[in-house]
Structure formats: structure tokens, C-alpha cells
Amino acid sequence: MxxxxxxxxxxxxxxxxxxxxxxxxxxxxxxxxxxxxxVAPLILIFGYLLREGLGAMNLDFFTRTPAPEGExxxxxxxxxxxxxxxxxxxSVLGVGVGVAGGIFLAEYPRHPLMPTVRMLSDxxxxxxxxxxxxxxxxLIVLQFGFSGLAGAVALGxxxxxxxxxxxxxxxxxxxxxxxxxxxxxxxxxWLVILRIVLPAAAGGIVTGVMLALARVAGxxxxxLFTAFGNPLVSLDPTKPMSALPLEIFRGATxxxxxxxxxxxxxxxxxxxxxxxxxxxxxxxxxRR
Amino acid sequence: MKxxxxxxxxxxxxxxxxxxxxxTITGAGASFPYPLYSKMFAEYRKSTGVSVNYQSVGxxxxxxxxxxxxxxFAGSDNPMTDEAMRAAPGRLLHVPxxxxxxxxxxxxxxxxxxxxxxxxxxxxxxxxxxxxxNDRAITALNPGVTLPGLPITAVRRSxxxxxxxxxxxxxxxxxxxxxxxxxxGNSLQWPTGTGAKGxxxxxxxxxxxxxxxxxVELVYAKQNKLxxxxxxxxxxxxxxxxxxxxxxxxxxxxIPADTRVSLTNSANRDAYPITxxxxxIFYREQRYGGRTQAQARALKNLLGWMVTSxxxxxxxxxxxxxxxxxxxxxxxxxxxxTYGGGKL
Amino acid sequence: xxxxxxxRPAPRAALSGRxxxxxxxxxxxxxxxIVGVFVLSVYQLGRESWxxxxxxxxxxxxxxxxxxxxxxxxAAQMVIGTLVTSLAAxxxxxPLAVASALFVAEYAPKWLANxxxxxxxxxxxxxxxxxxxxALFVVAPILGRWQQGFFADPANLQVxxxxxxxxxxxxxxxxxxxVPSAFDGRGLALAILILTVMIxxxxxxxARDVIRLVPQDQREAMYALGATKWEVxxxxxxxxxxxxxxxxxxxxxxxxxGETLAVAMVIGDSQDIIKSLWGGASTMASVIANQFGxxxxxxxxxxxxxxxxxxxxxxxxxxxxxxVVIARLTPRGIQ
Lengths: 288, 344, 335
Hints:
The complex is a heterotrimer.
Chain A: H1 18-53, H2 59-63, H3 77-107, H4 114-126, H5 129-144, H6 148-173, H7 176-184, H8 189-217, H9 244-252, H10 257-287
Helix pairs in contact in A: 1-10, 3-6, 3-8, 3-9, 4-6, 5-6, 6-8, 7-8, 8-10, 9-10
Chain B: H1 2-20, E1 24-29, H2 34-48, E2 51-56, H3 59-67, E3 73-76, H4 82-87, E4 92-107, E5 116-117, H5 119-126, H6 136-141, E6 153-157, H7 162-174, H8 176-181, E7 194-196, H9 198-208, E8 212-217, H10 218-223, E9 230-232, E10 238-239, H11 243-248, E11 275-283, H12 293-307, H13 324-335, E12 338-339, E13 342-343
Parallel strand pairs in B: 1-2, 1-3, 5-9, 6-7, 6-8
Antiparallel strand pairs in B: 3-11, 4-8, 4-11, 9-10, 12-13
Chain C: H1 13-56, E1 66-67, E2 72-73, H2 76-107, H3 110-125, H4 128-150, H5 154-168, H6 174-177, H7 188-213, H8 216-224, H9 229-258, H10 261-266, H11 284-291, H12 298-329
Antiparallel strand pairs in C: 1-2
Helix pairs in contact in C: 1-12, 2-3, 2-7, 2-9, 3-7, 7-9, 8-9, 9-12, 11-12
């Protein structure tokens, strides 16, 4: 950060050859231009969705389910409700295992299993989401049929490594002196962890969970063979369920204007939720 | 705190869910009849309160999912082969619900009247042998039409599809080269073209691509306002797909007791040549995998409705109704469903 | 970590020992779910891909034919498609990503650097399907119009017809490789383009963090010698940050390899040999998305899962590579 405030600006020096000065300016311009190119897609995508999707985001969009193919006037209530349910269920798995994994890595660094858990957690972070969908299909769908629960398990698997990573990092930021103070009061280690260390790190962990949620909320690939989709609102986790990313996928590849309209509005809703979550998480972590 | 909240939410959803469970039927498969089924099931829900979730994932997926018993019924435009049926853990029944036509839909700027095709020409387009719209083979069939020198983008399915099967089945009957080089199946090794998912996806690509041609069920062309061409039938007549010519394809065809039959390239002189039944596939013995009798009965009622009162929706969506002889065979098949060996 | 400072449940262990052990067991049990997920994944993928691997052996990954009608399955085209799209996207994105990182870390004033940094992070948060939707609705028609414009010239049409003959016989030339083969805008080129955009933020944010960690004296020393800003960047900052940036690049590669829906939506799905930059292709992930749902025959389905297994090991390998690179090449000051 301090780089910018530093050093004498070279171009004000006398005796700089024109070639060096030109190259310096050229590279600066290229770097600025590249940055514009990098940021442009985000602005273009967001602008496009605002223009095309906002109009479709009416009351029906939030209160109705898709109309039969070829008819108009439906909404994506089924997908909104499905996404919320699956994310809630996925969080139980992702947060439960993820936070425990983070505690294990940060607080029991000398446990013989520690390196294995750390390595596998990193490996899981890199596994493509669609592969997790295949795994959940084999583990759950083949036995119990398509279900929201199967989708939630696939999403939960994807959340685990993200939550592990952030939990471990924030736990390590809690000063050792805090732990020592607790131990010297005669508290057992588990109480020190639960009552002192975890509360001190709670903000960071919540940030991590929110980032993990933002990441999996947009996943459609692992849901294709698990949650499967449903044109109706389903509150039964053992039955197929819809999700926003699934409906976006369906609508974006459809010929029907109505499906495309819903997909655009759904995409706008989804990125608004994801952006809000990410920004909130950033803001929370900055404040500390 | 957040966790307990979420846990609570999960519990509440589980609780409310158990009441609704028996009222839901899950089906998956063919996209060919999806516009019809989504209409039928919306009406069925209005009149009976039973929810039917039908996912239009392609016939191949439907056949796979019913074999793996992850759905209550499958939709498919091509009947399962004997070999595929042997792989299933129980005896499968096929019941036709409608007759549909596969049409060559296209996007050729400047062409206003329906183009004429033959099976041979369609085969050559999908073999990559006819490459531009002003190819001699197409202009010869369409005298008086000015066709542009635009390259042809052949759009085909990327998923396992009954529509593909019906189309390839027809092409194999009229083109030897197709039969030997490509063959018939739900998924093919295509010599050319660009893939899209579902009838809907193919229609979407055709709609947005000047120069494209795609094979879709008639209703997808009509509802999306895509022009589609006529196809010359076995009797040498150029027929534009519609309900009449589609149902003519079934006339004179001997329908076996299990209704598994191909309707393509019909000998009937008024028939549209790329025509097919679309089927629902389910297990005859409904007691498996923890299914209750109530669930089995709900499925039976739904299927019975589809081949009787439900037929009222066929023609408005450009599918032909089941001929009465076929409908009675369908009712018999549904009547033979059992639960635990006893009549359902 | 400085060992002696670690808390130890020393003298009071006898009192709290049991509850500590219970807690540790609980934590261990939950943490071992992570191990369980890994083991189950390998087991599940391995078991399901076994029929295909037994039938075709490891040649599965190098054999070219993918024909569901005859039951011949070889994944070479998907492996190639995956590598081509990912590496091309990497080549296109790395310079842009590093440049934007330099902008945020070295050039921009704070009031600009923070928002730009946020925007780049949001770019990483946009879901794959939304990129796919945008690519299909906005970018594909633009490319498609250009492709059709190309054929307004009859000479180009002739070239195209010649190339079609070559393509039909399974060949291509350099010229034909750049001649459009489909006119809907979808295809290999669009897939590469959209992947480039998708992986940009991964490299960019890692590069930015690494560049910010370059010690201040590095810069000062160069400036003191009279260097221009660009000379400082190219001779002091980039060499120092090289390893970290490379780590970010490899992470981005991992994402590109497994990216599914956006690619599946735009790549045109052809399991044939790649003959044109504008034509259809397929990646391992896109074929899983398109075919797993309906692969009925044991061998077909097993082959699709074998693609997943290949992808699984590929991502493990990439992850491992990233760690080695970062560990080996990072100057000690940054570690």
C-alpha cells in the first residue's frame, strides 16, 4: 500500500532519455487499459442484466411458479424457495464440518492426522463442482432418488474447504496470550476454545461462511444430477427441488422468450444476492 | 446461533413436507412432449390437487432414470430396446400419450414460403455434404425460391434424445449412407453440426442463427414462430407437418400389444414421414423401493387420465390424439399395473 | 510457529483431561468427514468408471473415438478440448490480470484502487451460469454476425467449401483452422473467451496480494538508481513476485479445467477432432454435464464417470503443482 506514497517520481528527474520516458508512459497506459478490459465484463454483464432483467422482476416473479411451456406470466418462486432451502441445509453440513476442521487444524497442530486433513481440505477446494455432483449422485440419488437434500449435500461438500480455510486463518489470528490467560485460570482447553477463542474469531468465521455461501449459491453444475429441478414449490427435502442457477441454465438455453425473460430476471436476482453477500462479508472483515 | 436457526429451518421444512409427499409424482425424460405435458400437468393439478414434476431432460435420460428407479415414470419418444429393458430391475410398460411430428425448422433470411425437403437432402445436410442453402439439391426441390449462398449450420442435440432417434430412424430408412456411417440411436457420433440441449435448445439456436436448420417437434417450431419445411413421404407427396398428416402415419400400422412401434416413413399416402408416438414408461409392479400403495395409485390415476380426458389438450398444442384403437390398448396396459402382485 | 509458546494442558490435565479428550474426539470426528468426503469421492468415481477403464484401459484417455452407437469410447478429444481451452484462456488472461494487479497495487490512488479491487473480486463471484447466459445472449450474436459477414465475400465462401472438404475427411490446415465452420457464434473461440474472463480475477487478486508484499526497499533501491516506474516494476517488483504470481496462475488453471456450465453452454458440443477455432469442441466437464444424465448403457455411463475421475486427478495434480511452485520459488521474505 505504501508503495504509492514512496520514492521520487522518476519522470521529474532531469536527464531521463526520451526512449525510457516513452516506454515508461507506454507501459503505464497499457496497464491502465488492461485494467479497463479486466473490469469491463463485470460492468457489461451487470448493465445487461439490469436493462433486461429488472423489467421482468415484478410481483409475479416472486410469487408464482413457471407457466406451462408456451404460456406467459410465470415467476420463479419455486427456484427462490428451493435455493434458500438447499443453502440452509448445505450450511449445516458446510459450517459444522468446516468450523470443526478449522479448529482441528488451528488448535491441534501436533495431531498426527493434521497434515492429512490439511492436505485433503486443500485438494477438495480444487475439485470441480460437477465432479461433486457425480459423487452425490452415486452416494444419495441412486439410493433415494433425486432430492433437494442430495443437492444440499453436494453444495455442502463444496462449502467445507472454504470454511475450513477461513476458520483456520482467523483462529490463528487470536493471540496466544488470550489462550494462555484462559488456561492459567484453570479452564480446560476445550472451554478455552469454545468460550474464548471461538467468540474472538466469530466475526471472521461468519465472513468465511458468507463467502462460502456466496460461492455455492451460484452453482448449477452439481445440482443437475441431484436436486434435478421442479416447476412447483417443494418443501420436501426428499423430493426434487428447483434452484435459481438451474432455472437460469434452463432459460438461457431455451427458445421461449418467456423462459429467457425469467432467466435474465433470475440472473439479476442471483448476482444481486451474491454481490450483497460478498460486499457485506468484505465490509465486516474490514471493520475489524 | 445462526446454525441453530438453520437447523430449525431444516426441521420445519421436513415436517411440513411429509404431508405433501404422497401428492407428488416425479417424471423425467423426453423434451418432445414437454409443452403438452407441462400443460396437462398444470391442468391436472388444478382439478385434482396432485403435483406432477416432469423434467424435460431428454428421452435417453428418462430411460436411464426409470431403469435406476430415481423417478416414478419416464417420458420417451423411442421405445426402449429389449436389451435395455432387460437391464431394468422390473418389467417396464410403454404407454403412448400422443403422436408428434419432427420438423426441419430453419432460419433462412428472405425465404417466405415453406421450403421442400426430402429425406435424402436432410441426410446429406446432416452428413455435411450439402453446405450452402443454394446447393443444387435444395434449389431443384424448390423452383421459384431464391435461396441465398449462406452456409448451412446444422443444429443437433447434445443430449441423448428420442427426437434424435426418430429423426435418425427416418434418415436410416431413406439414406444408406446415413445407415452405414451414422446409424440410429439416442446419441450419435455426428459428422457435422453444432449441439444444443433439448428440443428447446435446438429451437433456440435456430432462432438466433441465420442459416441454421434444426429438427424439432412441431410445437417448438410453431410456438417459437420458426418456419419449417415439408418433407416428401414414401408415396412421393410433399407433406407439411400437422395433426392430420401425423395421425395418418399411424393408420395402417399394426400396433403390437406392448405398443412399441416405429411410425417413421409410413406407407400411408397422406402421412407425414417423420412421425412418432411419445411414450410414458413405468414399472408394471409398483411395489418397489418403499413406494406406498397410495403413491402407486396416484401414478395409475394420472396415467389413466393422460390417455383419456388428458387427450383433450393434444390438438391445441399440435400433437395428434391417440387413435381409439391405440387408446384402448393404452388403457389395458395401465389396467395391468399391480401392487405387491395384486391388482392396483 | 514458535513451539514453546503453544498452550499445553499441563498440570491440570488430570482434572480436565476427560472433557478435553471428548472435545478433541468430537472435533476429530467432524474433521475426519473431510477425509471421508475425499475417500468416498475416489471410491465412488473409481467404482463407476471401472467398467470403462477395464474395457479400454488407460488408452481411454488417449483414444479418439467417442461413439455411443457402437459403444466405442475414448476421451482424447475431451482431454485435448479441456487443455486447449484452459491453456489458451490462461495465455490471454495472465498479462491482463497481472497488469490490473499492478494498476491496483502500484498506480492507482487509494480512492480508485479500492473500488477497482472490489470490482475484480465481484468478477470472481459471478456464477458460471450467468457468464454462460451473457455469452449466449450478448457475445455469441456479435461473433455470429461477424462470421456471417465473412461469407458476404464469395471468395471466402469458396475457401469455406474447400475447408469443408478437408474437415469432412478429418483434416484441417492452418488457414482452415481460422475459417468459421459454424455461424451461431458458439464454439471453441467463444468458450476460450468466456473462460478468459472467468479466470482473470483469480490470477489478478493473487498477483495483487503478492505485489503488495514486495518489500519497500526493493522499490526504493531502484528509484534511488534513477529508474523509471516501469523499470522498477519490470526489474524489481515482477521478478520478486514471480513465484507468487505463478501460484495464482496455476490456481486459475485449476478453475479453468473444471469450469462446466458456461463452457457447456457455448462450446457447441462436438466430440470430433477440433478442426476450426470457430467450430464445436467439448471439454471433459462439458461432456459430463451434457451426457451423464442420459448415458444409459453401462459402458457409456461409465465412460462419462471416467471423465470425472480424470478431472478429479487432474485437479489434484494442479493443486499439488501450485503448492510445490509456491514453496520452491517464493523468496523467503514473503513466506
